[in-house]
From TrEMBL:
Residues 412-433 have a biased composition (Acidic residues). It is found in: Cytoplasm; Endoplasmic reticulum; Membrane; Nucleus. Keywords: Calcium, Cytoplasm, Endoplasmic reticulum, Hydrolase, Lipid degradation, Lipid metabolism, Membrane, Metal-binding, Nucleus, Repeat, Transducer. Residues 118-153, 154-189 form the EF-hand domain. Residues 1-107 form the PH domain. This is Phosphoinositide phospholipase C. Residues 410-447 are annotated as: Disordered. GO terms for biological process: intracellular signal transduction; lipid catabolic process. It is a peripheral membrane protein. Its EC number is 3.1.4.11. It comes from Chordeiles acutipennis. Residues 577-706 form the C2 domain.
Amino acid sequence: MQQGTLMRKVKSKSWKKQRYFKLQDDCMTIWYQSKRTGKIESAFSISDVETVREGHQSEVLQSLAEEFPPERCFTIVFYGRRGNLDLIAGSAEEAQCWVQGLRQLIEPRSFPLTSALVSCTWIRDWFQKADKNKDGRMNFKEVQRLLKMMNVDMNEDHALRLFQAADKSDSGTLEGEEFVLFYKSLTQREEVLSLFQEYSEDGKKLTLLELVDFLQQEQLEIEGTEELAMGLIDKYEPSETARARHVLSADGFLMYLCSPEGSIFNPQHRALWQDMTQPLCHYFISSSHNTYLIEDQIRGQSSIEGYIRALKRGCRCLEVDCWDGPNGEPMVYHGHTFTSKIPFREVVSTLGKYAFKVGHPALGAGCQVALSGCGRIRDGHPRMPTSPSPTPQELKHKILLKGKKIGRLEDMLDGPGDEAPDVSDDDNGAEAEEERRRAKVGGTQHSPVLQKDKESLAQALSDCVIYCKTVSFRGFQEARSHSRPFEISSLAESKARKLIRDAGNEFVHHNTWQLTRIYPSGMRTDSSNYSPQEMWNVGCQIVALNFQTAGTEMDLCDGLFSQNGRCGYVLKPPFMRDKETLFNPNDPGSREGPGPITLTIQVISGQQLPKVANSKDEAIIDPLVRVEIHGVPADQAHQETKYIENNGFNPRWDETLQFQLHVPELALVRFVVEDYDKTSRNDFVGQFTLAFANIKPGYRHIHLLSKDGTSIPPSSLFVHIRITE
């Protein structure tokens, strides 16, 4: 349809604007314009779209369910923290046309993208952006504009030579294959070609034995290298003739280095690779704070999108603050604040749909829900393992409730006991401090509120609390004497820091047999985050973060839990699971095992780095690379390269950075690219974070992520990694 499809763009029950939506000829871009003014208001790329949901699958569309049937409604969900786009088509047929069409366009991304496919998409995107008059050709003026857009500051004479060499038709313009030729000459990787020729006797190909030498000597592949080399040739060599001869061309070599096998992240650790049969307290568990909030803590919006986004990121511990609502229906919101409210039943329905979609399919990754307040629970006797210390493997596809409990857990697991029933609460604990803070925010006296909560705790809800019974923390000695492995305490970040400082080893020891949850300070009303690393250093399992807030803290969280099938569970190192451990993160010498290791990183080059957000077309970045080590205090460090002036397209640094790691098992390595600014703070360009245990040595590419944690292909760094004792 030339004009586009007329649909309603919906932001709220009262905000419904008609817009024309159209898929551009490149099949990669969608724009929409105002029906009233005809002005194009916005556009987005198909590559920005994560999924499409049919029907009333958002709060806004649910609120309009009586006005518009589900067959006409759908939601476009974007990657990262970008807001969803709720749309209402004029008919069910039009809605299906868009839903099915969008799914067809984003479907190829379900399969691994080769470097050739990424480059093809990238070339097409740039051609469409630079071809201003849309005639399918590009003159030299348009090419010059393109170079600026691509972060390239190139001498005009050199650019003209490349242009003329690619213009095989002598037409003064580039089209089709001519532009591809120009792009390839522009992206020639001299540093990769030099490495290729170092191992190639004739400089044109790598024989099978030459490739084996490279894999053994540089990539430190030890076992099955000949089979590995054969597999790489079959997978990445574009020439059928070369594949038949079992040789790898320079193009195939580059494709291998840009592939998952050539990534800094060990591909074997992407899948489920750790033992999942140990007690729950032996794992770090991906955890969120006030999961329902997608903005600030005082006036922010509560939304089921908070749960969907957290679960899709592999989060396994969610928070549900449940309060009495109208007509006795429980509502979820940040109590005693001005945040919006969502029905408890919508939250439960969302958990049912999304709790086990992410993670290794064989694991199903048990999900914990931190539940406060009261609600009507129909099934008061769920079937659970009878072990006092269940494992993730035993808890597959099950949901645990963390909360207060009437009576003793032993009475449910082992039958009646001699001890009189009690109502477990946190009146003197850290969670009570959070409740008091919340009460003060709302101007309500906290004591009656807490007493009312205690008195109104539903027996049916209490019966659902198994293994994660909330207890007050009154010191490590008290815990050793009176607590049980199936109980859990929550500590504010400030309390946790004091314990780390004053009793590091005791904290580590405590976390070998019982769960500990850490939550942000009540002063973080802007939903900012604390560093999770210092909490992981003492083995705290449930380190709750505000998932809606991008930054270093969430990069560390995503980096740690990007391994092990993204199941949300990461096994702690052996010295943090031993009940006799002497480890104290403040004294790295207390760790049993080999001595410090040296991590040497040669930062070689960057490829097609993105522009800084909201910068002008003609602006070109001055990139530098900073490498950060996050770990025990003795290992905390960062170093950075010099900046390269006016080149975000193919900067070369060739600088070596070196770090000594005393406790590598706890270290996370964060690579950050910034745009240098001598008069103000550097601007963020991209980052990638991973656990040291997941690093593959050798010549590796680091595929950068945005501030929201989404991929930005084909932006990458090329590095050489060495690890020595």
